[in-house]
Amino acid sequence: MKSSKYSTFEANFAVARKIASQKIENFKERKANGELLNDFEKNSYAGLAIDRYLSSAGEEGALEEEDVGEIIMVALIAALDTTSAMLNWCIVHLAMNPNVQEELFKEISSNITAEGNLTADYFSKSNSAYLNAVLRENHRITPPIALNLTKENVTGEIEIHDVTLPKQSMVVLDTRSLGMDPNVVKDPDTFDPSRWFDEEQVKGRKGTSAEVLDHPLYREPFSAGARKCPGSRVANYEAKVMLSQLVLDWKISLASDDQKIESWRDVPYFNGLTVQPTVPELSFEKRH
Ligand code: HEM
């Protein structure tokens, strides 16, 4: 059975697939002609996957060229829209919440070298508590994928809160409605990272219905178990490094008041495979 929404998704996916396969063809051609631009391209996932394919061609069990293209495509689709959705929303929230942005700037700037550069040390958990809290708050209000955990109940009938889930039910953790439920979160529309690093707040949730917010399965947008996102660590570090460098270099704000954006709810977004905002016009003021 195909709903009209699914048909739209399928048609759009076919377009994305076509664009991706053209990009891969173009990449393969440039690689074969020795025209890759730099080490970044040469050592990229696609570059190395093609090398592995070429060195194993003809061996038993080796992949076909077409399979390599398919694998690169899945990796690109899974990696790009998701990471950009996460970063775009973070930038929107920081632009709309100058106090939060200032607090983040303070944390980052007190963790840089004398020359003003970021180092790996900042990204240890204890040094970047506020940055982590910003990412968690972003995940609560605007997760890049609204349904981040899908599991099949394979063991047998399970009863949870007087509801019986028959064997083989598909169960989805709906991240968005949990984190935006006013019975669980006070002022759910307010972007307030202190919910996550303030020990008092975390302690205060213990033994209440809000305790679920601190459950490991809710913490991140990458699902869990066998099908957990294999790119989660790359995605997390990628987002942290990009966001930190951006906030270190620029003060970001909404470009004008004409955009009528008073709450994140005024920002239009596309709810597809990922939840992608239409980023309002922003203004960037150099910090130093
Ligand atoms: C913020 C960024 C990202 C988010 C929110 C995200 C989220 C997810 C989620 C929720 C799944 C599980 C889907 C399911 O239930 O089947 C998944 C799977 C996957 N992700 Fe990510 N992802 C991100 C970034 C990346 C990156 C950077 C890569 C690659 C470098 C990647 C590669 C994949 C792949 C290949 C799968 C399929 C795994 C499988 O089915 O075995 N993702 N991702």
Please provide a written account of the structure.
Pfam families: p450. InterPro entries: Cyt_P450, Cyt_P450_CS, Cyt_P450_E_grp-I, Cyt_P450_sf. One of its GO terms (molecular function) is oxidoreductase activity, acting on paired donors, with incorporation or reduction of molecular oxygen. Heme binds at residue 229. By secondary structure, the chain is mainly α. The protein folds into 2 domains: 1-63, no CATH class; 83-286, Cytochrome p450, CATH 1.10.630. The protein contains 11 helices and 8 strands. Helix 1 packs across helix 4, helix 4 packs across helix 6 (129-141) and helix 4 crosses helix 11. The chain is globular, with a radius of gyration of 22 Å. The protein starts with a helix and ends with a strand. The protein binds protoporphyrin IX containing FE. Protoporphyrin IX containing FE is lined by residues 74-75, 78-79, 82-83, 86, 144-145, 148, 150, 221-223, 227, 229-231, 234-235.
Write the layout of secondary structure elements.
Layout lengths: L3 H29 L6 H4 L2 H12 L8 H32 L1 H12 L19 H13 L5 E6 L5 E3 L2 E3 L4 E5 H5 L14 H4 L1 H7 L10 H4 L12 H18 E5 L14 E3 L3 E3 L4 E5 L2
Antiparallel strand pairs: 1-4, 2-3, 5-8, 6-7
The chain binds protoporphyrin IX containing FE.
Give a nutshell description of this structure:
The protein has 288 residues and is mainly alpha-helical.
Question: Can you give keywords for this protein?
Answer:
11 helices, binds protoporphyrin IX containing FE, mainly alpha, two-stranded antiparallel ribbon, Cytochrome p450, globular, 8 strands, 49% helix, 288 residues, 2 domains
